[in-house]
Design a protein that fits this description.
By secondary structure, the chain is of the alpha+beta class. It has 2 domains: 30 residues, no CATH class; 86 residues. The protein contains 3 helices and 6 strands. It has a 6-stranded antiparallel beta barrel with strand order 1-2-3-6-5-4. The protein is globular and about 35 Å long.
């Protein structure tokens, strides 16, 4: 039996058990390197100009990260910062906690809020003052 067929049969054999434990849902998620620990400004700076996917309660949206800016009063500029996003469609991202996905960061729950009346700028604040 060839290697691919054997792998398929193994996967089919564990499918009922995986479905009962919720593993199938996790396996269907897009793969991305798992970023564990705290999200830092240094994670986002190299991604400026790149697209992020947003998802909340069945609503999907996209936005480009414009800037990752250190908070002025911050004692640790890598831990306290704000992100500014430009949504692909104005008013497509309402205030709330969205699942935000990027291929290099994986998926993280992030609270965002419109930063202007035209809905063309979205902001997320990470304020970890100690």
């Amino acid at each position: 039996m060839n290697h691919q067929r054997r792998s398929l049969l193994k996967a089919a054999g564990i499918a009922p058990a995986a479905a009962s434990t919720g593993l199938v849902h996790a396996a269907l998620r897009p793969t991305a390197p798992a970023l564990t620990g705290t999200l830092l400004r240094s994670h986002f700076v190299p991604l400026e100009g790149e697209a992020f996917a947003f998802s909340m309660s069945g609503v999907q949206a996209k936005a480009v990260l414009k800037r990752a800016i250190a908070l002025q009063e911050a004692t640790d500029e890598d831990r306290s910062f704000r992100l500014l996003f430009a949504p692909s469609q104005p008013h497509s991202l309402a205030q709330g906690t969205w699942d935000v996905t990027h291929p290099k960061l994986g998926t993280h729950a992030i609270f965002v809020s419109p930063n202007d009346a035209n809905g063309q700028e979205i902001e997320a604040i990470f304020n970890r003052q100690t």
